[in-house]
């Protein structure tokens, strides 16, 4: 048989390698910014258009390249940064693989302009899909400008895989933040679609953080400093009371390189133990300096993971340094969090909490309140003073009765369980036919047998349809706040909110002003407690930023989903019997009761036949 193995042509090999290096515009941003830093730049400008899909350009004032180097830089494994494998252990540059430019040039249109200080003129090179289209001498300032246009122009499948501009821009900004945070001694700016989004002058570390995340950040930061023989830790952690619902602001840098480490993240969380509200995450901006010989950054192509020789020691040092700082700045004693009682209180306390959250949350949007006629009696939500065990016992007894009667009613019915049977008996009887299981499921009897509803998902469905209607058809009622509520976000976050202003207003929000980093709210949807507002908006921002690629979901839809998620009865929340029943009825009055807004099953049924089988 003839020989069949061939060496892949370079441009094919490069395209394949590009898959590893370049996943999205943000990957290009990372590589180009890192090259600029390696080139010793003092000032770096990043320009993106359409979230980087049409253009990512980085302009630096670094050392530039000679004509030969400029041409060579696009070859695979062409690097000025290491010469032997041993150099890998002495790295003080970001790059070392010599792969980035070759990969990028394989899948985009690239324009490079570069000049070294000592040269009169610079070099300009244009490459399209690994082919050099032009090379000439140009007049250009010292340093390098690389423009990467039309990413994935020759790989439509990859291009289609990109997410919406909002999502891709979020990734770009994340990379920009990471690099800018690691190098406060370099000035950075970011232009997005022609407007300046960030302008970060050379500054100290604290100021850099504040310039990125907003003035309000300053008061939230607690410094961390620790120096030992093996490790130097410096940076800041966030005061626990400012912890966020989303994991946004968590940054680790090892020798000025952003890394992800679940293990070290755990070290920090454990330093916060007992200080954080459930479900919130502390911010941190920490730099670790270690001997490059003791780490291996070679294990991941995009280099955000790292291997330490002695992880355990690092863990312990980090944990104690953070703990020490939190203690020293008197963080620990001022705690007065309303810890989420749902998870750790005995049942006699849990009785009290039944009325607290729901009185506020459910008032307007909660289906239980909407039909006031049937609900006036529960408006006060007084907990009946029966002892816990007694009432539990009663419920079971009553329920058993019902099951019995249901059984006898339907014993001889020959109907088998099909989707349509359920339609007929979806309305539950009045009376004690519901039961809350583990504060998570609502169990109810239906004609054909038994119904188990996931309370969180079901309530989301109900609220979601409500919100959609409010947003698209009628204006919702708004509840005026006595004092305007002032909330602080980053510039990007307020941008997201102002883009959604109209939709938010049709749910009942009233914004009296939305400035760069502050917004004032004078009205909220009826039933939304003031204390929930920032949580709802935070959740909304993070949902928008992590939006799924299917763009057939409108922002209205996203908003409705997000608010439904924030306001729905959570697992672990106990609800009154009337509420349970109302939830069941409301669910089946929905257009799509079977699934939650995110397409998860809201309920299951089990017919008597099926039960019978189990007892066979
Ligand atoms: P690596 O950074 O791993 O060496 P790259 O493909 O990113 O590989 O870059 C190849 C080479 O091109 C670098 O080693 C460097 O010599 C040169 N280079 C790239 N970007 C710049 C820049 N902005 N300024 C000066 N030289 C650069
Ligand atoms: Mg590089």
Description:
The chain has 616 residues and is α+β, with helices and mostly antiparallel strands. The chain has three domains: 10-200, Histidine kinase-like ATPase, C-terminal domain (Heat Shock Protein 90); 207-328, Ribosomal Protein S5, domain 2, CATH 3.30.230.10; 435-605, 2-Layer Sandwich (Ribosomal Protein S8, Chain: A, domain 1). Helices cover 38% and strands 21% of the residues. It has 22 helices and 22 strands. The chain has an eight-stranded mixed sheet with strand order 5-4-3-6-2-1-7-8. A hairpin with a 6-residue loop joins β3 and β4. α8 runs parallel beside α9 and α16 (455-472) packs across α18 (501-507). The longest helix has 23 residues, at 388-410. The protein is globular, with a radius of gyration of 30 Å. Mean pLDDT is 79; it is low at 332-431 and 548-552. The structure holds adenosine-5'-diphosphate and magnesium ion. Magnesium ion is lined by residues 31, 34-35, 95, 100. Residues 209-327 form the DNA mismatch repair protein S5 domain. Pfam families: DNA_mis_repair, HATPase_c_3, MutL_C. This is DNA mismatch repair protein MutL. Residues 433-575 form the MutL C-terminal dimerisation domain. One of its GO terms (molecular function) is endonuclease activity.
């Amino acid at each position: 048989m003839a020989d069949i193995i061939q060496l892949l042509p370079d441009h094919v090999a490069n395209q394949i390698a590009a898959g590893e290096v370049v996943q999205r515009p943000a990957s290009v941003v990372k590589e180009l910014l890192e090259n600029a830093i390696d080139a010793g730049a003092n000032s770096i400008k990043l320009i993106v258009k359409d979230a980087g899909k049409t253009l990512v350009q980085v302009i630096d004032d670094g050392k530039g390249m000679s004509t030969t180097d400029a041409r060579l830089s696009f070859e695979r494994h062409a690097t000025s940064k290491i010469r032997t494998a041993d150099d890998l252990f002495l790295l003080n540059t970001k790059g070392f693989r010599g792969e980035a430019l070759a990969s990028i040039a394989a899948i985009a249109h690239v324009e490079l302009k570069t000049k070294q200080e000592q040269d009169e003129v610079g070099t300009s090179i244009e490459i399209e899909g690994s082919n050099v289209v032009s090379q000439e001498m140009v007049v250009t300032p010292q340093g390098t400008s690389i423009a990467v246009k039309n990413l994935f122009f020759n790989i439509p499948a990859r291009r289609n895989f990109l997410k919406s501009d909002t999502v891709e821009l979020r990734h770009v900004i994340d990379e920009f933040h990471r690099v800018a945070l690691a190098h406060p001694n370099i000035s950075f700016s970011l232009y997005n679609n022609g407007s300046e989004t960030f302008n970060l002058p050379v500054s100290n570390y604290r100021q850099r953080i504040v310039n990125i995340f907003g003035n309000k950040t300053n008061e939230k930061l607690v410094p961390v400093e620790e120096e030992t023989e093996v490790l130097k830790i410096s940076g800041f952690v966030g005061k626990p009371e400012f912890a966020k619902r989303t994991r946004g602001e968590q940054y680790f840098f090892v020798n000025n390189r952003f890394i992800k480490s679940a293990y070290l993240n755990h070290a920090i969380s454990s330093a916060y133990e007992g200080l954080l509200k459930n479900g919130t995450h502390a911010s941190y901006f920490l730099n670790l300096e270690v001997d490059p010989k003791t780490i291996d950054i070679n294990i991941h192509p995009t280099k955000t993971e790292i291997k330490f020789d002695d992880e355990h020691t690092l863990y312990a040092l980090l944990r104690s340094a953070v703990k020490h700082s939190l203690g020293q700045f008197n963080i620990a004693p001022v705690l007065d969090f309303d810890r989420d009682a749902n998870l750790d209180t005995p049942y006699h306390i849990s009785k009290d909490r039944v009325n607290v959250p729901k009185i506020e949350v459910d008032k307007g949007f909660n289906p239980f309140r909407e039909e006031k006629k049937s609900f006036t009696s529960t408006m006060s939500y007084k907990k009946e003073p029966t002892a816990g065990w007694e009432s539990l016992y009663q419920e079971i007894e009553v329920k058993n009765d019902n099951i019995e009667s249901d059984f006898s009613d339907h014993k001889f019915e020959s109907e088998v369980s099909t989707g349509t049977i359920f339609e007929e008996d979806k309305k539950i009887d009045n009376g004690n036919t519901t039961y809350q299981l583990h504060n998570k499921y609502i169990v109810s009897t239906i004609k054909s047998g038994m119904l188990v509803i996931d309370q969180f998902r079901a309530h989301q469905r109900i609220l979601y349809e409500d919100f959609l209607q409010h947003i698209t058809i009628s204006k919702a009622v708004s509840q005026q706040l006595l004092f305007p509520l002032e909330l602080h976000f980053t510039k990007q976050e307020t941008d997201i909110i102002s883009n959604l202003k109209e939709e938010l207003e049709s749910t009942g929000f009233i914004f009296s002003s939305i400035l760069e980093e502050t917004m004032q709210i004078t009205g909220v949807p009826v039933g939304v407690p003031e204390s929930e507002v920032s949580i709802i908006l935070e959740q909304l921002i993070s949902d928008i930023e992590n939006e799924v690629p299917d763009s057939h979901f409108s922002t209205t839809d996203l908003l409705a989903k997000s608010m439904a998620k924030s306001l729905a009865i959570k697992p672990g929340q106990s609800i009154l019997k009337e509420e349970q029943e109302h939830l069941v009825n409301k669910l089946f009055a929905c257009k799509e009761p079977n699934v939650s807004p995110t397409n998860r099953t809201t309920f299951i049924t089990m017919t008597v036949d099926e039960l019978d089988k189990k007892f066979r």
